[in-house]
Write a structure and sequence with these properties.
Blueprint (H helix, E strand, L loop, with lengths): L8 H4 L7 H12 L4 H15 L9 H4 L2 H11 L8 H26 L15 H17 L4 H20 L5 H36 L3 E9 L2 E9 L1
Antiparallel strand pairs: 1-2
């Protein structure tokens, strides 16, 4: 069986050290909810980024999906990743479900006011979580082909978080927590994928020539599903 037939064991195997970075990012965001020092830092960063800004740049509405789109674009271009269509679509669908549940749950629980005062659902940043979930997805699928694919994904995700602050929609701690949630969600998706394959798909789906995948998405306060079909 080739590397593109299924997700490799290195992706799906749990390692405690993989929790370090997302835990630190999420932890910083959570601590910042009550820490006066971190709140002050939030304000300083916001003032620096938004000083003398007249027009907002809404590229973050699109860049959040760029890393995920890159995985499918690269595969269509003939650059094979680690997993086949069904496996990678199952992973990102699972990741987005975790992201959507986590982000919407925390927004409802924390009720942090946005920097622009438009609403009280600032924490964490959903755009950033979506972008970093995709960046980790791109990294996992193509890091063995070229690390630059993964690095580029993380650069785009970081830019998405930066523009969320630049557009006065999120605090720095919102973005940090969103990044951690996104990374962790995709890691969890890879860890549980073998179970999903066994319990949901089974042998019949393995042999099927046609597959249908449901891809959830989250955009600001909206969530929904897309449908992907492969023959």
């Amino acid at each position: 069986m080739s590397s593109t037939d299924t997700i490799t064991s290195s992706n799906s195997k749990f390692h405690v050290k993989q929790l370090v970075i997302p835990t630190l990012l999420i932890g910083h965001g959570v601590i910042g909810i009550e820490s006066d020092g971190i709140k002050g830092m939030n304000t300083e960063i916001r003032d620096e980024l938004t000083e003398n800004i007249d027009d907002k740049i809404t590229i973050d509405d699109f860049s959040q999906y760029a890393p995920v789109a890159s995985v499918y674009a690269l595969n269509l271009a003939g650059v094979k990743g680690k997993s086949n269509f069904r496996d990678r679509t199952t992973v990102i669908a699972t990741s987005y479900l975790i992201v959507a549940g986590s982000v919407m749950g925390l927004k409802s629980l924390t009720k942090i006011e946005r920097p622009d005062g438009s609403s009280k659902n600032s924490f964490p940043s959903g755009h950033t979580a979506t972008a970093f979930a995709g960046a980790e997805f791109l990294w996992q699928e193509y890091k063995d082909v070229s690390i630059w694919y993964g690095i580029t994904g993380y650069v785009v995700a970081s830019g998405t978080g930066l523009f969320r602050m630049y557009n006065d929609r999120h605090w720095f701690t919102d973005v940090m927590a969103g990044a951690g949630i996104g990374i962790l969600s995709t890691k969890i998706a890879y860890w549980v994928n073998p179970f999903i394959k066994k319990k949901i798909f089974g042998k019949k789906t393995e042999e099927s020539k046609t597959s249908v995948s449901f891809i959830p998405f989250y955009n600001r306060e909206q969530a929904g599903f897309g449908v992907a079909v492969t023959f």
